[in-house]
């Protein structure tokens, strides 16, 4: 594959290297393309596993496949004309291919030669992988195809293919210690404390107890380890639940299928999957309960598409239905090696002296579910982390928050300050000894080496000032985050009572990230929508019918003579009995019951469940059945429906299907009706149907157009219904033209469209339908609030462009006055030109900020593949960030991850990804914060995410309330922790100027240690858990407050250093005041003079009260816990100090405090200093707070006043006015663009209806009856 033809350049490919979980097992040689033996040149596709016609595939160098023929023997194996032995998926290999047949026949050659010097019976990599719990697969030669022997587990075991276990855990027994320590010591603070602990062990260096730092560090690491273990155990429990799921596996001894856990499933085994069950591994379809080995699968968990897909086994294997036949199956499969492409597969199966080529039509991928088929039998090809689903997954990443990253950098700066302070103090000591050495003779330092003393002093002062970085901070933060996660999980507002599912926080370390999100990347299917389509209303012959008429919407005739409003079904049944109107109603629902590709599935209770490739069609057929036109039977050439009003069944002979595609935007069926007439039934977008209406006889166009506008204004998906009677002569004249077009080899699709145009004319408009794609509860309100909060939302979906736009309108991501920028091109150059033209127009026209807010970008998967190239991604990102909303359609799972990674790499913004399917896992893990929805597409996303919720609407409170709270609380707790430590330990620096820079501490060492452990530990924890700068009610009411958090108002570099400088200021004030006070007030009541420790205790008490006073100033919400934490902490110090000073000396601890209590508590100077000094320190803080709130208030300051005084605002009235304006704009916009309810595949509909016969089934032995 050349760089030119590759949608992704090599630079992009490197961005997703981590997606390949097995990169270590793939040799570097697999990354290099070799020219095929027929002389393929550079720029040509030399990879036969890549169908050049398939654009939407993404095979990267680490998993790219080499020519299968060349794997066998490129020097002598003959190739077909294009050098691809698998060019035709239905081709059977020629028997004269001697080399290939020889390899097929001789199984022994396929086995690894363990006697060869290149092979070892002892594979240390295998044992090491088992020890680490890492997936491991042993393949003899990765340049050759995977060889799987049928019903030969012994032979297959020699290849040591990977087992079927899945692991999403972050650690295991072997990796926990190294990974945990690496993560913890990537925090500079922990490295700093580790270094400090080592220095403390050097004799004669530390001025404090040698175990204070190492003990505290061990506590920090232990708390962090316990939290990590608890969170990973939750992931492990979810993995065990999945791995222990059961499936039916063929047992050759029992000659039957027996239950077996997914974990124990092996490559080469034959499994049986029943209707509604997921596939346990990547399977090769052998046979099914349906004729021609057909089956339906749902791939929403893989690619997000809700429409069912048809798979078909090979005719040579379709008869293998009974266990006995399957047990007797002998042969082998040559398969491509594991890769990440969901849409390609190549291989061959050899049995009974025949060799059959395999294609993606036979591939059943893990993550998909079997639908509308009683059972299928498949051969396990890929297992565990080698399945295509897991190849599209990424390993659980180690995520760090933005706050942590800022702290890490600022700690480096604090290290610089600490070293500077140590150098100043050490140099001061040397200068003092040099200048005043004669006066310091009692220190006996005359013969001391000054250079050695200088460096020793640096270490001493390093230890003395080391607590400028608060080691207790990290324990406090871990506790705060863990409790915040607990409160999120305990919030009943984000608890789903119906599903009994609370919000789960799997990574509590990311809680504050929820408060700074700027971009949300969301899946559509199952995240915004419920995967449920509901038939809402019909417009028939100018009259609207609905089951339940909304309030004040009963039908009336407007001033323009057009009827507006609704009639109920009872009135429709009455109209059905009239002549002209009744015939139109009957024809309308007959069309809905016949012109479709839906398959009826009869349930055990006799009811019919409709399985549809398009959920819209399923809703239409169900809607017809609900009003009495019940579709019952599909045969290859006819359909049957029952009119329950008349109690009669009608058979319509299907003559032709004119398929839907994105160009035609309609589907038509030609039927021979029971009355002998040939009718064309057509349904599609109003624009294409109106163009083909007969110029005369259509009296309902204006009324139907009005109804379409009303439907679209409600966010409903609309479809027009039309018909015409075709004479037999016209049909016989047209039929050969259509047949010839369907078999041409040149421009077939266009010629078939042209043939359809010849007969889709002069239509009679019957009416229109309205379908609601049921959104998750509260989605529109949630998206509106998130956008108001300043969050840009990008939808990344596998659905079609029209479907995605309709959902965008319904959920209010796209508003009526928005201008859509559409990029839907077929080549890289066209994509470049499209984006450049849009950028030029936006820049040259100088679009206003208001107009910028009305822009929305829509791009399809093919164009996105080009736009993600390094030379185009800047254009794409520039357009994307200008837009208020972005919708990416038809994207693959890897494209989702690439989009997230691109924005993450290029923008300094926090990203959140949310989805509910396995296809969303890569995107979820690539974002800063990943949220999984435990929805209809399974639990894979929820298991792999940092947070899981059960409904999208819970995202609003999770971000706007809990996120904002968590960010503000963590910020205040961290800033306060740094402040209080600097305020105390900088006193040590100022004291060095008074003690000849000797390293003497001003406060007793255990008291210094207990400062962070007892006396000031409670305030940051209480602030971090209970503080609220604004209540939940007002945060929900004013989503714009979230922008305060986005801007980093509570924590940024400027604010951090403001707190640091404030700590320096308070320490200087405390020290200078204490020096002046005790210079003149150091005489005690008994005539004694206060000693050094009395002075130090007074300094410590003043500093503690100052720090607690600062906590009181920054607290927004006072609770009983706040009272215990702030006043209570100071009371605890005053009560605990006498106990410490009394008991400590008795147990040989804190000897400095022996007999000190009377000289402290009995001194008026001590109490006066304790009262006056904190006031002098905090006076500046009080005045600054007053100035900010009065003259430069933040947004939340106004809301705090509204909250405090319960001031009423006029937001409800404004909201009502905005809704009225939105309604008017919506109607005008919908005159230009209306949605239509079609999301079928572009081809294959005729094949589907021709192959299916619901009257034929297999019995338990697989025999058709």
TrEMBL record:
Active site: 523 (4-aspartylphosphate intermediate)
CDD domains in the cross-refs: P-type_ATPase_APLT_Dnf-like
Entry superkingdom: Eukaryota
Main location: Golgi
The protein's Enzyme Commission number: 7.6.2.1
TM region positions: 409-431, 451-477, 973-993, 1013-1035, 1056-1081, 1093-1114, 1121-1140, 1160-1179
Compositional bias (Polar residues): 1-11, 28-48
Pfam families named among the record's database cross-references: Cation_ATPase, PhoLip_ATPase_C, PhoLip_ATPase_N
Compositional bias of kind Acidic residues: 12-23
InterPro entries documented for this protein: ATPase_P-typ_cyto_dom_N, ATPase_P-typ_P_site, ATPase_P-typ_TM_dom_sf, ATPase_P-typ_transduc_dom_A_sf, HAD-like_sf, HAD_sf, P-type_ATPase_IV, P-type_ATPase_N
Cofactor(s), names only, from the UniProt record: Mg(2+)
P-type ATPase C-terminal domain mapped to chain residues: 942-1194
Record region (Disordered): 1-54
Binding site for ATP: 523-525, 617, 660, 683, 717, 797-799, 890, 896, 919-920
Family annotation (Gene3D superfamilies): Calcium-transporting ATPase, cytoplasmic domain N (3.40.1110.10), Calcium-transporting ATPase, cytoplasmic transduction domain A (2.70.150.10), HAD superfamily/HAD-like (3.40.50.1000)
UniProt enzyme class: translocase
Residues involved in Mg(2+) binding: 523, 525, 916, 920
PANTHER family: PHOSPHOLIPID-TRANSPORTING ATPASE (PTHR24092:SF150), PROBABLE PHOSPHOLIPID-TRANSPORTING ATPASE (PTHR24092)
Protein name: Phospholipid-transporting ATPase
